[in-house]
Amino acid sequence: MGLSKTLDITSDFNADGIATLDVGQWDNVVAQFVTPVGAISFLGSNDGGAITGITDGNALLAKNFTAIQGTDESTGTAATSTSVTSNYKFSVTHKFVRFSGGTATQILIFLYKIDL
What we know:
By secondary structure, the chain is mostly beta strands.
């Protein structure tokens, strides 16, 4: 039995050129980029920006991102960014995933967990 959730992050991404998601509870992320303008980079971090005694950290405070690879679902090629309409799959190896740079007509995120 699995669990899934779809998010449309287009407005948030286009407003700031950045979107950060807490994906720690999911097994995989599939991001669909529709007509991006400019390169969109894929980044990951486990640093939630926690402050001892104040906050455990979260996607808004997350920092220290580094490039991560996603797999283009049409070619099987791994990449750290895209500038064309595409679907990229990411195995969740970081608590936070960030997409950064450019704009897009639409960005849909499909999160899924294989076993509960």
